[in-house]
Design brief:
alpha/beta; eight-stranded parallel barrel; binds iron/sulfur cluster
Length: 676
Amino acid sequence: MQFYCENLIEHKRLATKEVKIGNLYLGNFHPIRIQTMTTTDTMDTLATVDQSIRCIEAGAELVRITAPSKKEAENLLIIKNELRRRGYSTPLVADIHFTPNAAEIAARIVEKVRVNPGNYVDKKKFELIEYSDADYVEEIERIQERFTPLVKICKEYGTAMRIGTNHGSLSDRIMSRYGDTPIGMVESAMEFLRIARGEQYHNIVLSMKSSNPQVMVQAYRLLVKTMFDEFGECYPLHLGVTEAGDGEDGRIKSAIGIGTLLEDGLGDTIRVSLTEDPELEIPVCKDIVKRYEGRNQVTENTPHPGSAFQLPYTPLEYKRRNTFSVSNIGEHHVPVVIADLSKLQEFTIKELESIGYSYDVVTDKWTIADTAADYVFTGHNLLNFPLPGTLKVIVYPATWLLAEDKTKYFPIFDDIGFVKSDFKSNDINFVMMDCFSDDTSNLGYLDSFANDPSVVLCLSSTSQNAMQSVRRMFVQLMNRDIKNPAVLIVDTNWQTADEHLIHYATEAGALLLDGMGDGICLGMTLETYSSFDNNLSGRRYSSPISGSQMGVEQFINNTAFSILQATRTRISKTEYISCPSCGRTLFDLQETTARIRGVTNHLKGVKIAIMGCIVNGPGEMADADFGYVGSGPGKITLYKGKEIVKRNVPSEIAVEELVNLLKENNVWIEQQVLIN
Ligand code: SF4
């Protein structure tokens, strides 16, 4: 094993134990299973059965249903019988929080139960308590006493179990000792896992979810390492990003978290949590999983070219790669966005609107959005209009020679071209490097321009394992103490808008989460670009952000900024943490999320949680700045951080009250634009 996976530079799945869930096998190199969770009231049998069937027909291999109390747990039998009567044998999972009694009933009925170790025994009071070692041991004994009966029932009935830790709902005990950290998440699950193993019960899957992909990825990696260190084996992993939201942002966040781990061969089943109907999650899961079909699925530990390499970064905590800056790229600068406009047939001032720059002829002013690209790549084209002040242009070397304003235009070379060129910019030279997949010694002409203060590296790979190839180049740069900033170049030749989003998010997100990348440039092959559907009719969801007329350049620009936002490397917009909803939900989450987004989406950097119920919502909303939480039929409770500030507000005026709360806390601004 390398640190936490089989291989950091090839796609090789991690060997995990096999788990049986009804008639479904999971782990041990079985296909990555796809699952979702119903949003209906569990007591509404027909609605739950009908929704489960829609999910199954969309491709769900497991369906989870909430069981908040004994009566819902008992109703699972009626739901299961009705599904079987209608010919559906898909395994069902009971979702349990706070109620061991419900778990013990459900475990006798359905094929799998999910318990949250943060609240199965402990009741959360958000209190910081000092525990002595003796107190702590006593607490573990209390957990053992309460959890063991469920383990015994699962063992007797052949029921599988997921020990599902959530970043936002760690117990006060874990929080007091480990804080709100990946270590705390791992330890929370390990306490339960040790008890289960003590009973020789192994039909277990684990998850480490968070709405922050960075935390989530680190927690899963640490969990794998911890299991191997302690047991010498690993249980299957259920991957997911919680409260990912909806639309593009939800898909991008999910793909970054889930995709980063799948790239490393971690993950046996996935759920994409969207604030949308659950059957809409399934195509996204399929798009994520199909990327690994036909990839290397080596099942033995064979020697590989990377076995000897040293890892000069830590995959268990975020630390940005050490670079110097070239103009506004690298060092302390946020990652830049380079918009590839080289495929445009004609180039007028209008085209810049798609990447965040609007020109007003009457006032002769530019309006620059928070999500305006920093550079444009125009290939062989010089622009025949004055540029907005902050925008710079990258062109091919021969075109650059013709540009009058060398403070606005910069050349891009391939590596040999740069080494042999008689002319170079004094300020910024972009140098393309193809990162080869299987030859660790081939670094092209890197040594000729390493640490040249004018060079920004542009790293790409056409290999099947492109992310790993670029990562290996970063490792080489770090090991050789080469500090030039580097831009990630990611091209796609997938077909649909969702496939492009997932590809970009996985390839770029996985590197950014490890502190690699001082900018991104997302592109498409010419064929893909030409066939891109401007109306996004291939999309299986409606865009809450940009409407249906989003063109390819705008789509790519939005995606680039969303990836940076989701990796928390550059914040340019409001962040929404909205739960996917379930049988506990007390209002229409999709409609409410859209309304809140409609009035707050200009509040750059503010994190707003929209949670369906007060039982789990406050715990699950993690690091949100403000929370909008259902607290009863027609009632909303508003939070600032974890603190209740307005209780039981009538839902008709709750969005207005949220805006008032934002105003009272000085985070509200009127729609704001920068004028050049
Ligand atoms: S926070 Fe949302 S998904 Fe979680 S239990 Fe409550 S309603 Fe269900």
